Amino acid sequence: MIFPHKVEYVVRMTQSIAFPIDIPFIKDLGVELISAENGRAVVALDLAPRHLNSWSVAHGGVLMTLLDVAMAVAGRSLDHAAGGGVTVEMKTSFVQPANAGTRLIATGHAFHRTSTMAFCDGEVRDTDDRLLAKSMGTFKYRPA
């Protein structure tokens, strides 16, 4: 896992914080920002029926969106003056399905940051601490 603390600690957290930038899609999906500092970020989502595919598990696009947001926010947390960013590249491995009714926790870590780019990794786990997906991504940030 990316963070030394257990996922249960994050799951018990009930108060999310505001995203630094308004992103209507993320708001509509129901993604919550739990923390973002020092190159690390945690986001969460309560998996609802609208997030499922035809097999009644989380749609891969939902998992990729959580990873994308967690990693982008982690990179931005190293430079709060940075404006919004775009995903330049992202690779995701789906490990196992996310079952309906669970809470998904995505963590992001920026392992290298330049003045305009961040190189990150991330993972998604469920409330049972099962690894669901891992990802790596590169993000470009525009000046504020």
Give an overview in words.
The chain has a single domain, classed as Roll (Thiol Ester Dehydrase, Chain A). Helices cover 20% and strands 38% of the residues. It contains three helices and six strands. β5 and β6 form a beta hairpin. 34% of the residues are buried.
SSE diagram, text form:
Blueprint: H1 7-12, H2 24-29, E1 32-37, E2 40-46, H3 60-76, E3 85-94, E4 103-113, E5 117-125, E6 131-141
Antiparallel strand pairs: 1-2, 2-4, 3-6, 4-5, 5-6
Keywords:
alpha+beta, six-stranded antiparallel sheet, Thiol Ester Dehydrase, Chain A, globular, 3 helices, 144 residues, single chain
Compact summary:
The chain has 144 residues and is of the alpha+beta class.
Looking at the structure, the CATH topology is Thiol Ester Dehydrase, Chain A
From the alpha carbons, calculate the radius of gyration and give it in angstroms. 14 Å
Count of helices?
3
**Strand residue content:** 35-45%
* Global shape: globular
Question: Helices and strands, in N-to-C order?
Answer: HHEEHEEEE
Summed over residues and divided by their number, the pLDDT gives a mean of 89
CATH class: Alpha Beta
Helix content: 10-25%
Sheet with the most strands, sense and barrel status: 6 strands, antiparallel
| Strands side by side in the biggest sheet | 1-2-4-5-6-3
Low-pLDDT regions: 1-14
End-to-end span in angstroms? 32 Å
CATH architecture designation: Roll
The CATH homology group name = Hotdog Thioesterase
Number of domains: 1
Quantity of strands, as a count: 6
The SS-based structural class is alpha+beta
